[in-house]
C-alpha cells in the first residue's frame, strides 16, 4: 500500500513543471523552518512510513513464497536449485517460484456413444474400437456447442521414465499411448541394457533403430515388459480419455485432471511427467511435482489436490452423461455439417440435453455474428431427442427464389395403426378366455407318462462345460426328463366354427388353432358376423373389405405336427395308406386357409422368426399398412410344441441344451425373475390380432367413448450372433434405437414410458449362468435404455410362467392390448426370491389387477437365430 501511495505521489510530481516544483518545495521548507517541532514530526512520520512499508512488503513476500501451489513446475524448481548454487548467483537469472497449477476444470458434452455400439453399427469386428483403439466411449456435440480449446507446451530433454511417479500422454486414442509408453521403455533399455527387467528385450540390443519402428514382435515384447509400469504410472490417468475420445491438445490435460480426480492425496510428493505431441513430428515433455500441504506455513492451504478433485468430480460427471445410439450420433454429426458456416441460423438441438452451466449457441444472424447464452446451473439434464430433420439450407447461386433460407420438408405423417380385435387359444383352455389370461390362471400341467417314456427313449445327452472339460450327462430315467408342459386342447373347427370338414382335414394342428384365433379376432373387430347357422359359419368379409385385407401367419414349427404324425403312422400302422391331404397340410398353411375362409384377397405370407414370430409378424403388418399395401392385416400365430406328438422331439431338444426345467411342481419351475430359476416350460397355443389403419369407418364399429389401442411403433432386427444365445449389447443398442425413433416420430419420451408403462418380458426362466439368462440380458437392455431411475418406475410383466413358452405364439401381445383396454395387468406368478444379479434393488414386478396409470405397453421378443423385435402399444 505504501509503495502504491509513493508511486501516486511521484506521478503527481512528474506532471508539475520544474519551476512549479521548486516553488512548492521552497515554500514548504520555509514554513517548516519556522516551526522546528513540526519539522521534526514530519521527519519521524516519513521514517515510520518507510519502516512499515518494508515490514509489510517482507511479510507479503514471505507469505507468497510459502503459499502452496499444489502442482508446481518441476523443471523450474530444478533450474532455480542449480542456479542458486553457482558462484555468480547474484547474476544468475532465476525462474519464478511456485509456478504451477492451482485449480483445474474439464468440459465435455453431455452426450456420448458407446464404442461397442459403433462397432456393430459400422459393421467392423467386435473389438476394433474397444480393443484395437482401447476406447470405450466417445462424447460428441450437436449444433449448440462449439467450444475451442488451446494449450501450451514446453521443450524438455532426455529422461529416464522410471524417474517419474506418473506419466501422462496426449491420447488421440488410448492404444497409441500404450504403444508410445512401451517405446519409451524400450529407449530406456537401449541406455541400460543390463538391467534385469529388460531381459525379454535383449535380442534387440544393437539393432538399428530404423529396423525396430515397425517390428510387431518388439512392440508386443515392449508392452509386456512395460505392463506393470503402465498399470502403476499411466493407467490411473486414462479413464476420462477412454470415455471422452480424442480431444487433441486438451487430452493430456484431461488426463492430468483425471489423475488428480482419482489419486487425490496419493499424489503428494510425486513427480508427474506430461508428454504431448502433434503433426509435424513436434513433441514436448514437461513435469510437475505435487506439493505436500504440510510444507506450507499457511494454516489452511487455499489450493490442494483434494479440493481440485472435489471440484472436478470427473468420474461421477462422466457417468451422468446421456447414452446415444449410432443413429443419433450420425444425426448430430449431420446436423453440425449442415449448419457449418451458415448465417441466419437457429440451432435445433434441445438445451435440456446439455449439462447445467454449459455455454451454448443461441443463433447466428445474417452477418454471421454468433450469440451465446449459458444454461442455468440449477437446471436439470434430461434425455431429449433431436427434432425431426428440418434443417435450414442457404440457397445456391442459381436459385430462382430470392428467399434467405429454404427448408427441407419433413417426413410425411405416419399412418396410425389400431389394434381392433384380439383373440387367444390358450393351453389347457377349450375356449378363448382373455380374462383368465389377464388373471394369470395357470395353464401348465403334468406331462403324461407316455410322453416321459418317449423322451427317455430318445437317448438325450446334455453336454455341460466344466472349465476346459466337457461332460456328457445322459438322460436315463423319467425323473430326469421334462415333467411339466402346457399343451393345448384340440380345436374343432367343424363343430364350433361351422367350417367344411373337407377343408379342415387339410389343416395341420398348428394351422387349425391359428385359424380359430384369427376368426375370433375378426369377430371381435366387428369385421365378420361369426355366427354358426345350420352347421355353417358366417365368416366372410364384405366385398369392400376383402381386397384391402392381408394375412400373416407366424409359427416356429409349421406343419411339423402333421409330418411327424404321418411318418409315425407309416411305421406303426400295418394297413398304412398315404394320406392325400398331407400335401395340403404341409404347403397350404394357416395364412392361406384363413384367407380362403374369410375371403381376404390382400397380401398374404407366412413368417418364421422362431420365438419372436408373432412380434415380427406384427412389425411386418404395420409396415404393410403404412406403405399402403393394404388397409388391415390379420396376424395369426400357432404352435403346438407341447402337445403329445411334438413334445418328445421338441422337449428333448431343449432338454439336451439344458434349457428346460425338470421340476415337477409349477411353483418350483415357473419362476420369472426369481433367483431360483432353473429352466423353461414348453407351451402350445394360438393368437390372433387385427391391425387396421385408423379412420372414421374403423371407429364407427365400436361404442362411442370405448378405449382403443394403437400400435405406436414396431421394429425388427437380427443380432447376427449365436443361434441360441442373446447378445445383450446389441439388444441394448436396438432398444435405444427403437425408443429414439418413438421419441422423434411420436414425441413420447422414454421417461414417460418408464413412468406410465409396462414392459412385457420375453423372460423364459432359463438360468444357464447368472449373466447369460434371458432375464439378465433383458434387465441389462432396459437399464441401458431407461437407467436405474427409469427401471425403478417401469412395471415388469411376464406370462410364460402360467402359459409356458409357446414358441412363435406371443400371448404377451394379446394380453398387452386387452390389458390396456381394461386397465389391468397379469401378475408375475410364483416370485419369492430377489436375484441380486439382475438388480441391486427389488424390481417393480406386476402384482396383477388394476393398473390405471399404465398407458403404454412395451414388448420385447427374441428367437433362435438372433431374432429380436419390439412393439409399443398405447391406450387412446
UniProtKB/TrEMBL annotation:
Alphabetized InterPro entries for the sequence: HMG_CoA_synt_C_dom, HMG_CoA_synth_N, Ketoacyl_synth_N, Thiolase-like
SUPFAM superfamilies: Thiolase-like (SSF53901)
Domain Beta-ketoacyl synthase-like N-terminal per the UniProt entry, residue ranges: 417-693
Keywords: Membrane, Signal, Transferase, Transmembrane, Transmembrane helix
Keyword NAD: no
UniProt GO molecular function: hydroxymethylglutaryl-CoA synthase activity
Keyword Signal attributed: yes
Highest taxon listed in the record's lineage: Eukaryota
Residues in coiled coil: none
Residue intervals of the Hydroxymethylglutaryl-coenzyme A synthase N-terminal domain: 97-148
N-terminal signal peptide: 1-18
Family in the record: Belongs to the thiolase-like superfamily. HMG-CoA synthase family.
Name by which UniProt lists this protein: Hydroxymethylglutaryl-coenzyme A synthase C-terminal domain-containing protein
Organism: Aphanomyces invadans
Amino acid at each position: 500500500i505504501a509503495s502504491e501511495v509513493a508511486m501516486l505521489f511521484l506521478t503527481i510530481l512528474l506532471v508539475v513543471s520544474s519551476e512549479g516544483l521548486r516553488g512548492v518545495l521552497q515554500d514548504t521548507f520555509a514554513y517548516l523552518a519556522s516551526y522546528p517541532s513540526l519539522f521534526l514530526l514530519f521527519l519521524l512520520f516519513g521514517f515510520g512510513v518507510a519502516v512499515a512499508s518494508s515490514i509489510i512488503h517482507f511479510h507479503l513476500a514471505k507469505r507468497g513464497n510459502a503459499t502452496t501451489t499444489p502442482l508446481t513446475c518441476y523443471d523450474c524448481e530444478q533450474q532455480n536449485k542449480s542456479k542458486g548454487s553457482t558462484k555468480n548467483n547474484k547474476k544468475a537469472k532465476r525462474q519464478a517460484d511456485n509456478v504451477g497449477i492451482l485449480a483445474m476444470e474439464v468440459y465435455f458434452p453431455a452426450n456420448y456413444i458407446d464404442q461397442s455400439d459403433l462397432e456393430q453399427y459400422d459393421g467392423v469386428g467386435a473389438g476394433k474400437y474397444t480393443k484395437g483403439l482401447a476406447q470405450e466411449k466417445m462424447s460428441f456435440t450437436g449444433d449448440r456447442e462449439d467450444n475451442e480449446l488451446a494449450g501450451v507446451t514446453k521443450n524438455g530433454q532426455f529422461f529416464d521414465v522410471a524417474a517419474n511417479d506418473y506419466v501422462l500422454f496426449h491420447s488421440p486414442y488410448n492404444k497409441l499411448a500404450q504403444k508410445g509408453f512401451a517405446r519409451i521403455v524400450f529407449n530406456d533399455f537401449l541406455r541400460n541394457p543390463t538391467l534385469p527387467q529388460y531381459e525379454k528385450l535383449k535380442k534387440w540390443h544393437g539393432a538399428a533403430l530404423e529396423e525396430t519402428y515397425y517390428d510387431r514382435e518388439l512392440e508386443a515384447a515392449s508392452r509386456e515388459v512395460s505392463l506393470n509400469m503402465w498399470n502403476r504410472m499411466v493407467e490411473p490417468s486414462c479413464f476420462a480419455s477412454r470415455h471422452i475420445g480424442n480431444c487433441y491438445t486438451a487430452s493430456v490435460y484431461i488426463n492430468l485432471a483425471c489423475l488428480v480426480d482419482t489419486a487425490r492425496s496419493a499424489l503428494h510428493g510425486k513427480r508427474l511427467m506430461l508428454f504431448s505431441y502433434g503433426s509435424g513430428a513436434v513433441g514436448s515433455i514437461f513435469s510437475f511435482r505435487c506439493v505436500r500441504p504440510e510444507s506450507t506455513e499457511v494454516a489452511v492451504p487455499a489450493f490442494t489436490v483434494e479440493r481440485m478433485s472435489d471440484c472436478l468430480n470427473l468420474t461421477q460427471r462422466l457417468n451422468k452423461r446421456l447414452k446415444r445410439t449410432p443413429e443419433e450420433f450420425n444425426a448430430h454429426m449431420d446436423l453440425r455439417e449442415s449448419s457449418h458456416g451458415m448465417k441466419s441460423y437457429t440451432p435445433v438441438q434441445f438445451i435440456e440435453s446439455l449439462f447445467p452451466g454449459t455455454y451454448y449457441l443461441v443463433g447466428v444472424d445474417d452477418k454471421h455474428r454468433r450469440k451465446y447464452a449459458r444454461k442455468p446451473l440449477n437446471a436439470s439434464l434430461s434425455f431429449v431427442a433431436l427434432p425431426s430433420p428440418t434443417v435450414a439450407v442457404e440457397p445456391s447461386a442459381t436459385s430462382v427464389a430470392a428467399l434467405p433460407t429454404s427448408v427441407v420438408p419433413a417426413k410425411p405423417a405416419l399412418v396410425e395403426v389400431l389394434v381392433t380385435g384380439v383373440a387367444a387359444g390358450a393351453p389347457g383352455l377349450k375356449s378363448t378366455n382373455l380374462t383368465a389370461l389377464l388373471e394369470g390362471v395357470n395353464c401348465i400341467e403334468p406331462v403324461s407318462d407316455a410322453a416321459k417314456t418317449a423322451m427317455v427313449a430318445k437317448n438325450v445327452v446334455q453336454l455341460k462345460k466344466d472349465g476346459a472339460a466337457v461332460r456328457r450327462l445322459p438322460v436315463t430315467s423319467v425323473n430326469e426328463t421334462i415333467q411339466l408342459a402346457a399343451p393345448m386342447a384340440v380345436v374343432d373347427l367343424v363343430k364350433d366354427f361351422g367350417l367344411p370338414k373337407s377343408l379342415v382335414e387339410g389343416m395341420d394342428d398348428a394351422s387349425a388353432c391359428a385359424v380359430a384365433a384369427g376368426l375370433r379376432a375378426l369377430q371381435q373387430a366387428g369385421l365378420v358376423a361369426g355366427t354358426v347357422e345350420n352347421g355353417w359359419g358366417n365368416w366372410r368379409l364384405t366385398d369392400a373389405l376383402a381386397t384391402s385385407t392381408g394375412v400373416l401367419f407366424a409359427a416356429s414349427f409349421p406343419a411339423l405336427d402333421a409330418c411327424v404324425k404321418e411318418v409315425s403312422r407309416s411305421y406303426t400302422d400295418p394297413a398304412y395308406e398315404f394320406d392325400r391331404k398331407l400335401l395340403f397340410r404341409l404347403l397350404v398353411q394357416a395364412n392361406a386357409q384363413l384367407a380362403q375362409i374369410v375371403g381376404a384377397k390382400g397380401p398374404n405370407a407366412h413368417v418364421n422368426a422362431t420365438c419372436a414370430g408373432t412380434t415380427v409378424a406384427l412389425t411386418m403388418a404395420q409396415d404393410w399398412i403404412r406403405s399402403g399395401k393394404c388397409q388391415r392385416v390379420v396376424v395369426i400365430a400357432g404352435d403346438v410344441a407341447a402337445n403329445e406328438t411334438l413334445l418328445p422331439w421338441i422337449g428333448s431338444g431343449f432338454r439336451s441344451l439344458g434349457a428346460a426345467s425338470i421340476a415337477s411342481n409349477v411353483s418350483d419351475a415357473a419362476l420369472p425373475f426369481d433367483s431360483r430359476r432353473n429352466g423353461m416350460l414348453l407351451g402350445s397355443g394360438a393368437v390372433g390380432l387385427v391391425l387396421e389403419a385408423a379412420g372414421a369407418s374403423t371407429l364407427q364399429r365400436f361404442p362411442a367413448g370405448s378405449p382403443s389401442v394403437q400400435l405406436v411403433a414396431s421394429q425388427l432386427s437380427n443380432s447376427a450372433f449365436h443361434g441360441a444365445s442373446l447378445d445383450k449389447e446389441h439388444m441394448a443398442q436396438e432398444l435405444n434405437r427403437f425408443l429414439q425413433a418413438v421419441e422423434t416420430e411420436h414425441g413420447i419420451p422414454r421417461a414417460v414410458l418408464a413412468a406410465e408403462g409396462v414392459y412385457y418380458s420375453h423372460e423364459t426362466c432359463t438360468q444357464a449362468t447368472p449373466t447369460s439368462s434371458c432375464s439378465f440380458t433383458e434387465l441389462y437392455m432396459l437399464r441401458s435404455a431407461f437407467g436405474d431411475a427409469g427401471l425403478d418406475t417401469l412395471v415388469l410383466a411376464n406370462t410364460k410362467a402360467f402359459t409356458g413358452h409357446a414358441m412363435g405364439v406371443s400371448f404377451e401381445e394379446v394380453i398387452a392390448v386387452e390389458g390396456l383396454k381394461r386397465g389391468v395387468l397379469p401378475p408375475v406368478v410364483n416370485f419369492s426370491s430377489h436375484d441380486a444379479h439382475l438388480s441391486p434393488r427389488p424390481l417393480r414386478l406386476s402384482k396383477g389387477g388394476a393398473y390405471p396409470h399404465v398407458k403404454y405397453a412395451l414388448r420385447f421378443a427374441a428367437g433362435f437365430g438372433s431374432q429380436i423385435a419390439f412393439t409399443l402399444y398405447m391406450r387412446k
